[in-house]
Amino acid sequence: MSFPIPTLRREHGRLVLEDSPLDDIAERFGTPTYVYSAEAMTASYRAYHEALSAIDATVCFAVKANSNLAVLSLFARLGAGFDIVSGGELSRVLAAGGSADRVVFSGVGKRRDEIAYALEAGIRCFNIESTTELETISELASGLGRSAPIAFRVNPDVDPRTHPYISTGLRGNKFGVPISDAFELYRRAHAMPALVVSGVACHIGSQLLDPAPVAEAADRVLALVDRLAGAGIVLDHVDLGGGLGIRYRNERPPAIGDYLAPLIARMGGRRESLFLEPGRSLVGNAGLLLTRVELLKQGEEKNFAVVDAAINDLARPALYDAYHDIEPVHADAAESRRYDVVGPVCESGDFLGRDRDLAVRSGDLLAVLSAGAYGMTMSSNYNSRPRAAEVLVRGRQCILARQRESVDDLMRGEHPLPAD
Ligand SMILES: *Cc1c(COP(=O)(O)O)cnc(C)c1O
Questions:
Q1: Phi, psi values for residue 311, rounded to 5°
Q2: Beta strand residue intervals within 173-259, DSSP E
Q3: Ligand 1 atom 3: the closest Cα is on which residue?
Q4: Could you read off the pLDDT of 367-419 as tens digits, one per residue?
Q5: 309 alpha carbon to ligand 1 midpoint, in Å?
Q6: Ligand 1 site residues, Cβ closer than 6 angstroms
């Protein structure tokens, strides 16, 4: 089977991303390093853009999936909008050349300073998730003499049939407001002079492999939009969130166009424009984590390949029991054995892959595939491990998108006790 990363191939046994051999990247930038393909990101963005060409639509990249400035500026230049969940993410978008008027702000716990910052910046929409937030935004907007464009993030109560930790649209989770309460909330918002009621939003979950639940959510959301219009509350956009899944192993996610077809069919001929908030499907299979085997270890029951990347670099295997394909950078004749690929961190959950048949020796390079989304952004400094470098590949060009952290970076802002 081909690699899940479309711009990755083997040439004379050596893994090459676009036109850049991975061993050259490891030589130049060290390991562990996240490596991204600009071409793969561009292709997935264009697939959205082209599929949506018949309707008025904005693709807002979900910044939390990959917030590196080089990645954000690539999407800004392609014309993307952005879905943010914090003031920090808004700063990143603006620093990367994104424009505030294409930014939607999601999240259940927006702080007052973050709301004020977003109001000053002039973002496109606040996706409100509670009554308290409605009141806070109204109060802050009037105080600042600004009008706040708002949508409610409604919880349409459809089952996205994905991992429970990444399912967000069911009753009983913390996100959004119940769709049954939404009509009353819109009436309240409509009467608040500092607010402009602009749209409605929903996001039912992540790594969705079936287009049906989103289409079902769209039906429920559009029924609400029509009911609101009947009451004189006219919305200008419908935000159907992100969530389209990708292939990690042998999943068969719908092609972007097929996933969108039922949504486009529903939006065609309507007055509202469509917003989408894809994260994983734009960047997940545009990235990999390059790591080096430190040593091979024979345990009593298992063999371990101990590598220089760990749970702090890529949390998904431990957090979601997620599978990432692991490929040797050099395919050679070494004997294949079954390994758990583990990091050096003091946690039994510190693994990148289990029971993998690999032909490796100590010192070899491995590529952990499909790591472009929720990889670096979920990384930490656990065990005082400086975070990985990030490199963006464009053909033969390898741009250092984020320098590897140093130990000084780790301790910045900390102070030992003052002298007695
Ligand atoms: C996480 C998130 C997204 C992006 O989800 P993907 O599965 O990466 O596409 C979009 N919108 C909201 C509100 C989110 O929380």
A1: -55, -30
A2: 177-178, 195-201, 237-239
A3: 242
A4: 999 999 999 999 999 999 999 999 999 999 999 999 999 999 999 999 999 99
A5: 26
A6: 62, 64-65, 83, 106, 203, 206, 241-243, 277-281, 373
Q: Residue for token digits 């935004």?
A: 137
Cis-peptide, bond into residue 32, ω within 30° of zero: yes
Structure tokens at 50: 């082209």
Identify which of 203, 221, 263 to mutate to test ligand 1's pocket (most ligand atoms within 8 A of the CB): 203
Residue type, 391: V
Model confidence pLDDT, tens digit, residues 159-177:
877 655 555 655 667 789 9
Q: What are phi and psi of 356, to 5 degrees?
A: -105, 135
Separation of 280 CA from ligand 1 center, angstroms?
A: 8
Neighbours of 283 (CB within 10 A): 30
Atom nearest to 65 CA in ligand 1: 8
Burial class (CB in 10 A: 0-12, 13-18, 19+), 102: buried
Are β-strands 337-342 and 103-105 bridged in parallel, bridged antiparallel, or unpaired?
unpaired
Q: Is 3.20.20.10 the CATH classification of the domain at 106-278?
A: yes
Backbone dihedral region of 29: left (phi > 0), alpha (psi from -120 to 50 degrees) or beta? alpha
Residue 145 neighbours by CB under 8 Å, 6+ apart:
none
Domain boundaries, the chain: 8-37+284-411, 106-278
Q: What is the pLDDT of residues 54-89, one digit of tens each?
A: 999 999 999 999 999 999 999 999 999 999 999 999
What is the β-pairing status of strands 8-11 and 287-298?
unpaired
Atom of ligand 1 nearest to the CA of 205: 7
Pocket test for ligand 1, best of 83, 127, 276 (most atoms within 8 A of CB): 83
**Residues identified as active-site:** 346
The domain made up of 8-37+284-411 is a member of CATH 2.40.37.10: yes
Residue 264, CA distances (Å) to 55, 119, 268, 364, 370 in order: 7, 31, 6, 47, 28
> CA-to-CA distance for 388 and 404, rounded, in angstroms?
5
